[in-house]
Amino acid sequence: MNFFKIIAKRSVLPGLLLLISFNSIKAQSGQQIFQQNCQTCHNLDKDGTGPHLRGVEERGPWAESRQNLHKWVHNPGAFIPTTPYTQELHKTFGQIMPSFPQLSDADIDAIFDWIKNAPAPGAAKPTGEGATATEGEGTSNRNALIFGIISLILAIVALILMQVNSNLKKLSDDKESILRPEPVPFWRNKIYIALFAIILFIVGGYYVGKGAIGLGRQQGYQPTQPIYFSHKVHAGINQINCLYCHNSAFEGKHAGIPTLNICMNCHKSINAYEKGPKIYDENKNEIDGTAEIKKLYSYAGFTPGPGANWDPANAKSPEWIKIHNLPDHVYFNHSQHTKVGNVQCQTCHGNIQQMDKVQQMAELSMGWCINCHRETKVNFNYNDSSGNKYYSIYEKFHNDIKSGKMDSVTVKDIGGLECQKCHY
Fold first, then answer.
1. Where are the domains positioned within the chain?
2. Does the keyword Heme feature in the UniProt annotation (predicted)?
3. What gap in Å lies between CA 264 and CA 261, rounded to an integer?
4. Do 376 and 49 meet the contact criterion of CB atoms below 8 Å apart?
5. Residues of 35-57 as b/e, b for ≥16 C-beta within 10 angstroms?
6. At the fourth CATH level, which superfamily is domain 1-180?
7. pTM listed for this prediction
8. How far is residue 74 CA from its own chain's centroid?
9. Among candidates 276, 269, 277, 316, which has minimal Cα distance to 296?
């Protein structure tokens, strides 16, 4: 029994330190959660793959209660049939948002608190020019900081009280002539060593596991390319279809990098960037569009002017840097998603038509893909022109739909979670 009392008394300080560590691990702002889970499909002020989110709590069932928002985020597929507003939303955007069961109610509240407090476009940023923090994020960070300071103060107080208790006990023993062995220094005390090892194992294990899970992922990766190519100018403003440049994305495994032939189809006659809006990089430096076109000409071996004749044999392809990379053991076929599954480019690549400099928006993790397979419905009506006759082999599912046992079929139902579907 005395052994357990000793452990209980000597665990106060390590326990408080452990509490501080876990508070720093769990502390996460609404903006961070939004960027990790929502930003791929949603903007604050413009519709993308999904609707814009500013003012979302003033629309439809979400104006009634935030509990409806919790239900929606946790399981959109189940919530859609419950209100006319969400049914109309589904018809408008044509797809169902993935479920996020891993987000707690507190995480969801943090997201929508941040959205509510995020400054409007053009408004002064609360932390100065070029800052990315918002009032909601600042509040969350302040709360985490206050909690951490209080925890640290309590830990210091506990340490002082433990030392006072030890000194008082020593004085009491000396007065009563009780001989006790000299206390073991803390660096040789087995209890302290064991508690420190446990704390180190838990905290270190958390970060090692988190780092190992994220190994090789490149969410947010935004390399500088040999030519500053603005998708916003080409796919957004000029409405050039993605398949014009990435012509194999609909028919082949790889989307492909456009050849200089494709670029020069337009730029043999477009040799200056004059009428479009100004282009800025991530550091707010203005990009000279005409100079970037000249870089293209240099790679293509083309000299503009009257009577210009381009010989592709003199061209040298730019060394483009691949942004979206999957591990070698993962099989992914673009046509299976774009042509068969009718998946839009923005689902995986984000609002590409609004990006000047492309970055990887989705985490492209195994869990991210599996969640999509669990939620995405397939066009199981193979009798009409839009259906896929391959699905005619699933006779059981067709019978279940006719009998009312099922109302839809997802990728998961037709083997979308089988390991060999995606792994060699």
1. 1-180, 184-215, 231-354, 367-422
2. yes
3. 5
4. no
5. bebbbbbbbbeeebbbbebbebb
6. Cytochrome c-like domain (1.10.760.10)
7. 0.56
8. 16
9. 316
